[in-house]
Amino acid sequence: MSAAQQPTPTPAPAKSPEPDESSRWHNVFREITTGNAIISVLAVLLALLVGAVMIAFTNANVQESAGYFFSRPGDMLSAAWDAVSGAYSALFQGSVYNFRRPSFADGIRPFTETLTYATPLIAAGLGVALGFRVGLFNIGGRGQMLIAATLGGWVAFAVDLPAGIHLIAALVAGVLGGALWGGLVGLLKARTGAHEVITTIMLNYVAFYLVSFLLRDGFLKTPGSNNPKSPASKETAVYFDLLGPDYNLHFGFILVIAATVFTWWLLARSNLGFKFRAVGENPNAARVAGISVQRMYVYAMLFSGGLVGLAGINQVLGTTTSGFGAGIDSGIGFDAITVALLGRSKPWGVFAAGILFGAFKAGSFSMQAAEGVPIDIVLVVQSLIVLFIAAPPLVRAIFRLPAPGAPRRRPVPNVSQEVAAK
Amino acid sequence: MLASPFRCVVSPGRRATPGRHLNRIDTMKLELRGITKRFGALVANDDINLTIEEGEIHALLGENGAGKSTLMNVLYGLYRAEEGEILLDDVPQHFAGPGDAMAAGIGMVHQHFMLIPVFTVAENVMLGHEQVKAGGRLDLAAARTRVREISERFGFDVDPDALVESLPVGVQQRVEIIKALSRDAKVLVFDEPTAVLTPQETDELMNIMRQLKAAGTSIVFITHKLREVREVADRITVIRLGKVVGTASPTASNEELATLMVGRAVDLTVDKAPATPGAPALVVTNLTVIDPLGQILVNDVSFDVKAGEILAIAGVQGNGQTELTEALMGLQPRVVGEISLDGTSLRGHSVRQVLDAGVGFVPEDRTRDGLVGGFTIAENLMLDRANKLPFVKRFNLQLSYLADFARTKVAEFDVRSQGIETPVGRLSGGNQQKVVLARELSRDLRLFVAAQPTRGLDVGSIEFVHERIVATRDGGTPVIVISTELDEVAALADRIMVMYRGRIVGIVPGDTPRSVLGLMMAGETPAEGAAA
């Protein structure tokens, strides 16, 4: 080894570590968005537990009895128990079944409320989940819902059509509106590489101010009114009630069930969904196998936006039919991210998670009314759920679950060899 | 003998303590006793006993997935063994992490270098081990001296102020070695060190190993390349399926070693009849590939491949072979020149169109580009056919057809798994590659391009892949094999094209001697009369 030996130069020193780095983030993204269902259940459980602690500590009786904790500790414990059990039973009675009502028809009303609240959450959650499966983070739910409400809402209040056809026209307009707003993001990503997180956030603002403007001076303005609020949707376009006028549950829920079935079919049984999933799991391999990754991004954002648009149109045809303002999305576009995460980006998981979140929403009002527990506690619980889901190792550590990936790294080749050897 | 001005002892929670121990003979005997490491139900290391004597080169030979790396990760403190103990000079050790192992004198040269490209050699060497002057300033001068000293002692020829990214791969590896030595490693573990080197660099590495050994350092040399083991090792331990299956001396023949490794007799030569080349099928003329930064990756390349022959493209990793194949496949956006297959131009076509034109492709990085790890075997087999009958009818996946197809292919290509629903990410490298081959060879091909088709595969799988490639050629299909392994090139090629810095150094017959190829891979044009 003489010093004079000329080292052989190579133009590119092997591969830069970047692909590894990006694939690591990719793996984390996948674990968070499509991980194990058990983690979801445990995350909800943990969040409820932490929520219980918070309910206990914010309760006036508990705080009072804490003052003489060392002379009579039982007081504080029983006060805490009363506070927590009272709050959670109010949550349950406000969202599933109210035992204080004599008839079943009245008692079950909270559950129908839950389903009503769940309807847009499921629709938007499906949209976000579809994005996740393709490796896209659609946080533009707000903008897509607003555009959907604008187009669908306009058809609903400004166009005269026979009943039924009018509803379908408004529905299609809304879904198309969401799809266009989402597809725009996909197009930007495919053509220019603009990251969808940035573009969706920005398009949220664009949509919000656009709708605000249209409500004040544009075609959404109610004639003769200075309120930034649109005219009421016409009767012919409004969703019909499923259980009669005594309940709020409307046709939107049926649509959402259909949307869930459709999304399941799309992802699990269709060739487009197959390509979606391939791109989401490994865009490199998808590209080498002849799948146009760019085109899949556009299609996925069209579908994702369309599903979120279904949530937007649900607001103007089902929930707020008396005219809408720029706040018509009610934060559903963001809650949808939580729902999609909790549902592990699987259509039926999203469906279940949407119902759970609908229950939180319906129950939180009665919790506040009956027990004086602030609604914010429910928001805290929802946020904690996200936190626990985003940190699967934390949940695994608490419940001592084995890490799924750990043994898979290196030794797995042996598994198959040993299996083969048998 | 590894005298060092700063002998640094790193213990957990304590900073380095510099001290002077000149002329100290630092040798150490390493013993692994009854090491058992389990991952769930899987036993990766099963009661392994291994002794590395002072100042010997001990080769750890085994197929991929045999448990070599697991064992070394146990030794390096990255994994904790369920049973067994590690003894250094007969004293049991407990390593909680690599820091402990390093402090005890164990150094590791990883297959993928753990260097920061934008740092200088000296900065990389001191990293994680920084010596600080008053006021918290880094003592770069000390690190520089240290690098120079070690470099001179072993004739490494490494400039402490060079940026790591500007160094050739072989020199980067020496930086890794210096890094380990600067921490007073007495046992050095080399994990597949020759995978990234040219033949010449490999020879230099062998020399370095011998020098280190002469200086008293013990070396563990992990590899699956038989020739290197026989050249440099003092003793050979063969591991198969997590167990030590035997020891051998360097005088053992390749066949004996391979038989130990695989557990059955292996034929290392590829049986192939002489090629009967037909008309040129793929014709590449003046092809140039430019990356987005304007760098020329493939420079004015012209060649052809005839029906029924294997053209091997040899060269050290990173000399444009990857980009050339990507250009053929429509994966490179900026391509100048002409590519034509059976008379029709392929340039500017999308990957989809290239595949539809009858090109089969085995990408060099199968986990990144060849397979979707989370997909099942069956799903991966239809990855390129998501629009095609009979896999899809009116947007609906034909799952029962796919299952039948997958079962047939799994049987035909001997993919060993728990079933077609197994995610390919759980398969061994060899079985993963068989899935890729099964997919690519099940179309009607007019050209087959296989990039690094046996990288990281065990001997048994290599045999299988080579047979398939030769069978494809014998079916009259033109084949391109891109490989950095001279053994593979020699075994398969009917003609060999060597690339260096994006250019073709020469196209020579398949039986060109290894030494000539080695020189060509370093950029020297072949001697007169060798060109074909």
Structure explained in plain terms:
Chain A has 422 residues and is an all-alpha fold. Chain A folds into two domains: 33-95 and 373-399, no CATH class; 112-354, ABC transporter involved in vitamin B12 uptake, BtuC (Orthogonal Bundle). Chain A contains 18 helices and no strands. Residues 1-20 and 405-422 of chain A have low confidence and may be disordered. Chain B has 532 residues and is α/β, with parallel strands linked by helices. In chain B, α4 (140-153) crosses α5 and α14 (429-441) packs parallel to α15 (459-474). The relative contact order of chain B is 0.10. Mean pLDDT of chain B is 84; it is low at 1-25. At the A-B interface, α1, α11, α12 and α18 of A face β4, α1, α5, α6 and α10 of B.
Would you summarize the structure shown here?
The complex is a heterodimer of chains A (422) and B (532). In chain A, 70% of the residues lie in helices and 0% in strands.
Outline the secondary-structure elements:
The complex is a heterodimer of chains A (422) and B (532).
Chain A: H1 18-34, H2 37-58, H3 60-66, H4 73-95, H5 104-107, H6 109-133, H7 141-158, H8 165-192, H9 196-217, H10 252-269, H11 271-281, H12 283-288, H13 293-319, H14 332-342, H15 347-371, H16 376-390, H17 392-399, H18 412-421
Helix pairs in contact in A: 2-4, 2-16, 2-17, 3-4, 4-15, 6-10, 6-13, 6-14, 6-15, 7-8, 7-9, 7-13, 7-14, 8-9, 8-13, 10-11, 10-15, 11-13, 14-15
Chain B: E1 9-11, E2 14-17, E3 30-39, E4 42-52, E5 57-62, H1 68-75, E6 83-88, E7 91-93, H2 98-103, E8 106-109, H3 121-126, H4 140-153, H5 169-182, E9 187-191, H6 199-214, E10 218-223, H7 226-232, E11 235-240, E12 243-248, H8 254-262, E13 280-290, E14 296-306, E15 310-314, H9 321-329, E16 335-341, E17 344-345, H10 351-356, E18 359-362, H11 366-370, H12 377-381, E19 392-393, E20 396-397, H13 399-412, H14 429-441, E21 447-451, H15 459-474, E22 479-483, H16 486-492, E23 495-500, E24 503-509, H17 514-521
Parallel strand pairs in B: 5-10, 5-11, 8-9, 9-10, 15-22, 15-23, 18-21, 21-22
Antiparallel strand pairs in B: 1-2, 3-4, 3-6, 6-7, 11-12, 13-14, 13-16, 16-17, 19-20, 23-24
